[in-house]
Predict the structure.
Amino acid sequence: MRVSLLRSFCFLLTLAMACPLLGAFDGGGGGKSLNNSAGANPGLSEGSYNSYNINLLGHVWLHEMGSLGASNVLANDLWGWTDSASGREFALVGLTNRTSFVEVTDPTAPVYLGSLKTTPGTGNRTWRDVKVYNNQAYIVSDNNGAHGMQVFDLTQLLTASESSTTSPTYFSSVGVYDGFREAHNVFVNEDSGYAYVAGSPDVANGGLHVLNLNGGVNGAMPTFAGNFSADGYTHDTQVVNYIGPDADYAGKEIAFNSNEDTLTIVNVSDKSNMTQIARVGYSGSEYSHQGWLSEDQKFFFMDDELDESRSDTLIHTRTRVWDVSDLDDPRYLGYHEGTESTIDHNLYVKGDLIYQANYTSGFRLLRINDAATLDLEEVGYFDTYDADNNVTFNGAWSVFPYFDSGTILVSDRQNGLFILTAVPEPGSLIVLGLSSLALVVRRRRVGTR
């Protein structure tokens, strides 16, 4: 038995050390060959993507999830949903004329289930955004007439069959909240059950339009909770139940708004009397687009969508970093420069990693070594848009890294849904090997009783 256990340990240790070499595809620094087209589906083969430490598990082209091959239908935002009872995982992918649903429980064999068409009377527009709460999806669209907020019962997906392009499945919404016509974005604080609609020209001067979702089970519609308009237009927001270092706001619900030229922090705890805590600009601002907190809520990482395209010289992607440990006095620390000269769009934080969708350079993975000194390190990438690395708005739009399985979703405007996984670092794999060995030992002990 001791010999067998030793062999198991050696095998697992060897596997742990070898996996980064076997699993990671490093395509080098070249390979950009196709024209910079804004049309859908350039026709890349699945083996032609430039990547490092990120593996491709699955891919669904636009025409395979409801665009029906139309060249003017592109992807935009996405989010993920996990059915808590079964653990099944689903991608909710925004297209310019619908929201498509793909099961990714087996990421190597994604299943397109069908789509929810845009609100009747609206059209094919660039922006659509979706978030989730209590098995409901909440969907908004910008510059798209009387779209309102679609409410979709995600449990429909649990009994849906695979949809085809020749006989597509169209789901129905529970209904449409019509307290505004169009909006750029929606964020849901799942810890409080409130949705924060951002960038609607119809309400709150484009600021926060807050909805109570706590009745939103079994088809109940959101109800209006309040508006915040003091700082005008909000492009995007993250709202948290605050657990950060500023004791003055412990337990409060706090919004971190990307407001075109500032970071604006708002106490949204009292929906009838939301108050601005701080509003701070920064050097070199062009368009503060979106951002996300570190998990300890000490730092805020922001992407400025237009600084790269408006620069007089070619600059690398800049990730802006804020010290927000004192909410009344947030301090802009500067920026980290990436490895490519492309435009950043959406980023999210999980653990000590930042998951970025950076248009033509695709998905980039940064490790936070020391935010206070702007020490961020690129540890992986997967270039979903292999046509070029030009400073344009083609390519990766958003990323979702929050599945328990570790599966990463990326939406690419032209190339659809990418289902990825990060290759663990050698140290992590050794721990995995030792954990597996412990499991073997436990099983053997049980077997000898």
Q: What stands out?
A: Residues 296 and 367 are 15 Å apart (CA to CA). Residues 2-23 form the longest helix (22 residues). Helices lie at 2-23, 307-310, 426-447.
